[in-house]
Amino acid sequence: MTIFVYQSILLSLSVFLFIKLLLSRTKDNKNKLMLPPSPPALPVIGHLHLLKKPLHHSLVSISEKYGPIMFLKTGSRKVLVISSLSLAEQCFTTNDIAFANRPHLPSVKRATFDYKNIGTANYGPHWRNVRQIAATELLSTQRLNASSDVRVGEVRDMARRLFHSWNSSAGSMGLSYFEKVSLKAKLFELSLNVMMTMIAGKRFYGDNIEDLEESKRFREAVEELFSLAGSANPEDSLPFLKFLGMAKATKKLNHLAEFTKESIQKLIDEHKKPGAQKKGTMMANMLELQKENPEKYTDTIILIIAASLMQGGTDTSANTGEWAITLLLNNPDVLKKALAEIDAQVGTKRLVQESDMSNLPYLNCIINEVFRLYPGGPFLIPHESRENASIGGYDIPQGTILLVNAYQIHRDPSLWDKPTKFIPERFENGNAETKKIIPFGMGRRRCPGEGLVIRKIGLILGTFIQCFDWQRIGDELIDTSEGSSLTLPKAVPLEAMYRPRQVMMDVLSTL
Question: How much is the pTM?
Answer without folding.
Answer: 0.90
